Amino acid sequence: MSEADPFAVDSDASPHASLLGSEFVSFDEATQTATMRFTVKREMTTWRGGVQGGLVAGYLDDVMGYAYVAATGGEQAPLNLDLSMTLIRLIPEGSLIGKGRVVKAGRRVVFLEGELLSEDGTLMARATSTALPTPRPSPETTGME
Fold this sequence. Notes:
Order of helices and strands: HEEHEEEE
Oligomer: single chain
Number of helices: 2
CATH architecture: Roll
CATH class: Alpha Beta
Helix content: 10-25%
Shape: globular
CATH topology: Thiol Ester Dehydrase, Chain A
């Protein structure tokens, strides 16, 4: 299992990482699975006490994207064509574990899946995504050359 952060190559974390409280934990090359920890801030929750649904998609998108970036050694990043999500439980403020996996990656399309888990391993949400492989964006380039 690799412990190197695939975005640490240039140390320029994407601006959204701070909003989501994203922290890379590990990447398992054999299963093409990235593990991340998120710090869910109160500002992400609704009066129901859980993260707003569209923001849940952001956590899932982040962990699935990290899996593909890590699988390509930081060279590529996915550009979503679609994301399908199932909200299983309300996600409260606090710590959240994300698992993202590359199901299949080709030259023209990438299939990803992700899960969000509580610290005790309870499944909170899951998603699948179909994406285009693109060069990894940076502060200097969009990755859309």
